[in-house]
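This section describes the prediction task in plain terms. A model, or a person checking by hand, is given the sequence of a single protein chain and must write out its three-dimensional structure as a string of tokens. No templates, partner chains or ligands are provided. The sample shown here is typical of the held-out split.
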Amino acid sequence: MMRNCFLVLGLLAATTTAARADDEDGNLYACKVRTGQLSVTFKPQTDIKDLATWVMGFTCKNVILDAEAEARVPRVTIMAPNKMNTKQALQLFVDAVEATGLKVVQKNNTIIIKLGPDMPRSCPTVASTSRSSGGDVLVAPPTPEAPAAPDPEDEELAKLMDAGIKKTDDTHVTVTAALVDKLLANPMAMAKGARVVPAIKNGKPDGFKLYAIRPNSIYARVGFANGDTIHKVNGFELTSADKALEVYTKLREAKSLTIDITRRGKPVTLVITIK
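The expected answer:
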């Protein structure tokens, strides 16, 4: 059963699907131009930044996302039941973004996402007073934004993790198969739980390093810490995304995962048991 290697799948989701990894040449983002058919399932209310990273991942085009455009339209829902070629996938991306009122401008090697023509930029509120001949200008503080409503799906996943993860100590944890099934059904939840980048040592691949781990993510819950570098899973080395996929294939029926990592310069072994 494939569910028993959810950790490796999460690594793949974070390094290849979400395309947020450094490549072996030290580039911030990895991509691979694709010519075949694509099949993708988007989570409802997909983050616009994740969508931009997705299109970059198969086109290898630079993407510029206007900060105010992201703030104005942070998420979009896409339902794509059929496989598509890369041209259709790119058009789907453009249609989805422009359906929100934003504008997509395509150049030779760049995609620009900016505010649409009917979406003027916001202006700060400015008040002035004359305390001296020069006249002081006082800028009113911005009105605080209302906190975003909690994502019901994230809340449901948090409850499942509360019930489905049992830590014996800092390096041993048991995870229920039901929780693994839920995570596999929503790989984007794993992808956004941490930033995963290939580690390079002496010019050679040296596993995957974890950054920006969210406190309530599956990574944090099973014992990973920011800065951890994962070298092996059940003795198999993780030297590239392709190697991680190979390891995933070999371990898809594993009942236990032994993960060798380096933490602050010292070796640590995490053991995750799936029941």
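For orientation: Confidence is low (pLDDT under 50) at residues 1-6, 11-28, 124-140.
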